[in-house]
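Dig into what follows:
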Amino acid sequence: MSKNLLLIFTRNPELGKVKTRLAKSLGDEKALEIYKFLLNKTKEVTQQLSCDIAVFYSVKIRENDIWSSEKYQKYTQEGNDLGERMHNAFKNSFKKEYEKVAIIGSDLYDLEPKHIKTAFKQLDTNDVVIGPAEDGGYYLLASKETIPEIFKNKDWGTASVRQETLIDLEKQTVFLLPMLNDVDIFDDIKDHPAFSQFLD
């Protein structure tokens, strides 16, 4: 067992249930294809890491999917909103005696192993690490303990989330990773060569 744990929050890849903002421009089937493409990219990036990894499913655990049970622990997300679900995942991970916990979503094409490795390393000298996303949220959050207030009273999915989180963390030392773009709307992919296959 590593002392570092990476949490990956995913949605079960079902038609009409994923990338709904993208689906408004491209339709449900294309949105599902793109989400599966992003899931595979997340797997590629994370399977190279030496930390422990846990996949948290939005609805139910899938046994025979892209996440091999040999490499990935599997859980379901618990809670009424994203904040509560993340809070529970962090709390339960620290109960299992992990020393550093980081969380990412599964809709980042530009994420690289170095971003996650840097996050764990920076926790040696910082309380919290945040990977800022271009939409005002964050694509990564890492800490050495559960900090309940950062998961409460947020309008999840809006441009204010990162700023409000940083206000909550005024007494902590925070390291910021490079800004990346997560994929939510058509503008996020229209000029990105990796997505041209979905746009013809």
